[in-house]
Design goal:
- The structure holds two protein chains of two kinds.
- Chain A is mostly beta strands.
- Helix content of chain A is about 0%, strand content about 55%.
- In chain A, the strands form two sheets. In chain A, strands 2, 4, 5, 6, 9, 10 and 11 form a seven-stranded mixed β-sheet that branches. In chain A, strands 1-3-8-7 form a four-stranded antiparallel β-sheet, with no helix packed on it.
- In chain A, strand 7 and strand 8 form a beta hairpin.
- By secondary structure, chain B is mainly β.
- Chain B has no helices and eleven strands.
- The chains are: A mainly beta, B mainly beta.
- The interface of A and B includes residues 3, 42 and 101 of A.
Amino acid sequence: DAGVIQSPRHEVTEMGQEVTLRCKPISGHNSLFWYRQTMMRGLELLIYFNNNVPIDDSGMPEDRFSAKMPNASFSTLKIQPSEPRDSAVYFCASSSGQLSYNEQFFGPGTRLTVL
Amino acid sequence: AQRVTQPEKLLSVFKGAPVELKCNYSYSGSPELFWYVQYSRQRLQLLLRHISRESIKGFTADLNKGETSFHLKKPFAQEEDSAMYYCALFSNAGKSTFGDGTTLTVKP
């Protein structure tokens, strides 16, 4: 298994453009998490899904951010319109079984730069 | 609300010296606590979890509910321990909260 797959690995865009980040969780995992990592704020949970259903999106910074999980093997995080302060590394992670007990497996991250 | 505090952003020790990475948490329920590690150019990965009470790579962490702490310790640091360490708390509902991380540098 290749683990959690994220694409693209790097994204450079201009302010105002739409950005879509993609994640493929580990096969058989039923929970998926999106995180944002910055120097100032560390690793922040944005949203997480269980069995494709969003459970908690309280970490999503504002309406410009949206996430979907149309099926068990794919999720997207969209920013529209993007702003320079959105520049960060975005991680996707997946886990199986009971949420609070199980290890999360992280993807390699997408480094987003908004000019 | 749940919160995790790692008071040290940077920690530097010499090889062979003891190391302790501090973690304090705030949570009204019964927490599940973890330490994750990110080595250079590698993915963030689980190091250990309090429920397992295990020692991984010589690291241990004890949950102290009275002091609401989950400090990570190793008696003799090695150069390969240099990495970014995150303390994490998972709620009963599965919500995860990570600390800001501590960058550990072990000098030769």
